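Bump. Still looking for Dihydrofolate reductase structure tokens.
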Amino acid sequence: MKVCTGASMSLDGFVSGPSETGFEHLFAWYGNGDVEVPTGNPEMTWRLTEASAKHQRAFSAELGALVVGRKLFDFTNGWGGMHPLEVPTVVLTHNPPTGYEDNKWFEFVTDGIGSAIARATELAGGKNVGLNSGRIASQALDAGLLDEVWIDLVPVLLGGGTPYFSDLGVKPVELEGPLMSVQGNRVTHLRYQVVKR
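Sorry for the wait, here they are.
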């Protein structure tokens, strides 16, 4: 079991552009291939290249639970009740929303990144725990809880926005790798291991 963060990222290091823009570039690789990959959302089927499909299937097979922040949860409107990767999702928040008390896919944790990852680890059943990038990944890295960084590197410059990592308390952070490099269509899938101190 590993704690991993993964996201599509621009060449200048952003996972979203200014004012939450740029997703048509960051996520274009989800629709530029011939291989259909269904998700937990029946209205969302990815069309990937063979290389990206193999990468995505391996990631999904190893994933047991997610930890996301409230900002992403709200931005996606709770993914309509279930994350597309169809795994339990722990939302780290100061203020849990109402209306999700009976939803089996989401749990809300208010007492920090360590507790959120611990709960996700329980839910993951021995599989990996995935974290969204940005503040969540940064908090996990600062706490020494992050094992791997997965990057879907997209050849676009967004010029600003939300960085993959921000406000790190521990600097510099060394990574080993890439442990994996897969070339898709307008995306390169990379995986790095965090060097623990």
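Residues 50-62 form the longest helix (13 residues).

Edit: fixed formatting.
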